Amino acid sequence: MSWITRWKEYTSLQKAKAIGKLAAFMAGGMAACLLGVLLLAKLLGPPPLLVPQTTVIHARDGEEIGEINNSGEKRFWVPLNKMSPALIQATIAIEDKNFYDHHGFDLKRIAAALLADVRAGAKVQGASTISQQFARNLFLTHDKTWFRKAMEAFYTIRLEMNYSKNDILEGYLNTIYYGHGTYGIQSASAFYFGKDSSSLSVPEASMLAGIPKGPGYYSPLYHEERAKQRQSIILRAMEKNHFLTRKEAREAAAAPLTIVSEKDEQKPKIAPYFQAEVMKTLKSELKLDPKLVELGGLHIYTTLDVSMQKAAEKEVEEQIDKDSSIQTALVSMDPRNGDVKALIGGRNFTESPFDRAVQAKRAPGSSFKPFLYYTALKNGYTPSTTIKSEPTSFAMGDGQKDYEPKNYNDLYAYDFITLSEALALSDNIYAVKTNLFLGPKKLVKAARQFGIKSPLSSVPSLALGTKGVSVMEMTNAYNLFANGGKRVEPVFIKKITDSKGNVIYEHQYKKKQVLDKRAAFVMTDLMKGMFDEKLNDYTKVTGSSIDQYLTRPAAGKSGSTPTDSWMVGFTPQLTTGVWIGYDQGKEINRINDGSYSKKIWVHYMENALKNEPAAAFKKPKGVVSVMVNPKNGKLATENCPVKRRTYYIEGTEPTEYCHEHAGDRPFNHNGFDHKRKGWFQKVFPWWH
């Protein structure tokens, strides 16, 4: 063998060794790279599944009343075990039949796809697994670059290494796009078939499973024939994978489907003003991250009672003239805990989202008087305290013009009237005299005690409600009468859970006793007087136009100014405030506009509580009742033409009998012990 031959053999051998070493090095490098990628994927841990999800607002009974969705993507997360098994099977059959057997990449499918592409000379078959598609939907754009593909592969590895197969499948089905702005199977089920994803039938599931391949191309709304062809392919795949028998597949293919196309705009929004207040509460009070609220898939459980809200909206619509431009606001609360049950901030949210129930400050008129008279009871007044009702000019001093308040329609008793009458008839002279007697600063202090936070002035006219307050403030203040003197705060949100059902906020109810229980109860009894025509005098009681509609014990007070009409009242279960007026401060028509607030209030209260038993106000210890002549506040006798049971703080009840009627004899006061009888009457009880 020549040296040339030997040299060639030697050279060939060296080349082979070099190639072998290079191959080994490359294989080692690839193995090291793969190991490094796997190690890095493990070290980085599970990738956060930050999927934008629609936040849902619920009523108190769990009913969905609204959604918060600023991402442009409608998504609702639903657990895998709450999805229709047929949908899961259809998706696996068509998208990734080996899903539970591979580790993120289906090598056989990839090889088959490559072979098909080579034969066709173009990309004709995809090979992405469910894990790869989920990674792409979660973290990446759909740009067709090598870098994007590499990152997709890396995210797929991270998903497979840190999540179970069921977690990945659940995530995929909750994020995939089904067309028409719907992301995830729950949203798609509601949109196409108007049902929950757990209720999908085999025909429905197989139809939906075919849409993600081309949401526009296979939309059953736009291309029914294509969608049916795609459904047939999926049903055959389900049969091939033993999810269905041949008979079941044929029956599913032949089954008719009704596409409902339930779009959001087709659903009327429930309580839009209430929902706007919920949003404010989330931001200003609970300080939740706006991104979490908008994209976090939260479930916000509110205090709204849908039936009460509908009852309120019905009364507003029916009672107010449709051609009138007058506005209204209504707040209805549970006085026992502060839950806001219904809220109306205007007649049309779309035309005017300004919330007149919370944001507007309007003069409450005489509905402010109960705060004054509570203060009076705490400072020596009783329901029998008399003051003369007549036109009066009050000297203001310091060069100010005299203050001359007037009664409604310039009607006066021109005589002494009791506190019971003064409140029931809404006598302004009695109120201003009382405010001046007590000192106006005491009324401001009392209003603060009731929770009124709006600016107030220590002036005589404050007794007549001349300073602006909100309907929410007034309604919540009246809660203190209804619940025995406990201050509660308005509550809109009871609980918030995240997309997985974990509670991230729960309201803690707090009550604080701020009023004297006895005085609060006596005031409640006095406020029942507006519906008791036994108190009619120089004019009728202010509730005479609606008292015939009441079927249960109720108390309240109306109020009016030239530009405002109010009615605030309560039962032990519900407090409601209603305001009527024009946005521009235009004067209301007393005959037509002035009656709206009372009518809305009474009919709403009756409808809202129609399924609740009538409840009486609970009398606390230290309160007694006696029968009195309401004209003078003295103990009634048998000959008094009108007798009315009236409550007093014990020790302040009247002891003098009425002697205005011929042949007066003491009246049986149901066991009331008249301890203040003189010795002569004790010895001779028959003596009058």
TrEMBL record:
Keyword DNA repair: no
Ranges where the Glycosyl transferase family domain occurs: 62-238
UniProt key word Transmembrane: yes
Residue ranges occupied by any Penicillin-binding protein transpeptidase domain in the UniProt entry: 329-597
UniProt entry keywords in alphabetical sequence: Carboxypeptidase, Cell membrane, Cell shape, Cell wall biogenesis/degradation, Glycosyltransferase, Hydrolase, Membrane, Multifunctional enzyme, Peptidoglycan synthesis, Protease, Transferase, Transmembrane, Transmembrane helix
Subcellular location: Cell membrane
Recorded catalytic activity of this chain's protein: Preferential cleavage: (Ac)2-L-Lys-D-Ala-|-D-Ala. Also transpeptidation of peptidyl-alanyl moieties that are N-acyl substituents of D-alanine; [GlcNAc-(1->4)-Mur2Ac(oyl-L-Ala-gamma-D-Glu-L-Lys-D-Ala-D-Ala)](n)-di-trans,octa-cis-undecaprenyl diphosphate + beta-D-GlcNAc-(1->4)-Mur2Ac(oyl-L-Ala-gamma-D-Glu-L-Lys-D-Ala-D-Ala)-di-trans,octa-cis-undecaprenyl diphosphate = [GlcNAc-(1->4)-Mur2Ac(oyl-L-Ala-gamma-D-Glu-L-Lys-D-Ala-D-Ala)](n+1)-di-trans,octa-cis-undecaprenyl diphosphate + di-trans,octa-cis-undecaprenyl diphosphate + H(+)
Transmembrane domains' residue ranges: 21-44
Record-linked PROSITE patterns: PROKAR_LIPOPROTEIN
Coiled coil: none
Identification of the protein by name: PBP1A family penicillin-binding protein
The organism of origin for this protein: Fictibacillus terranigra
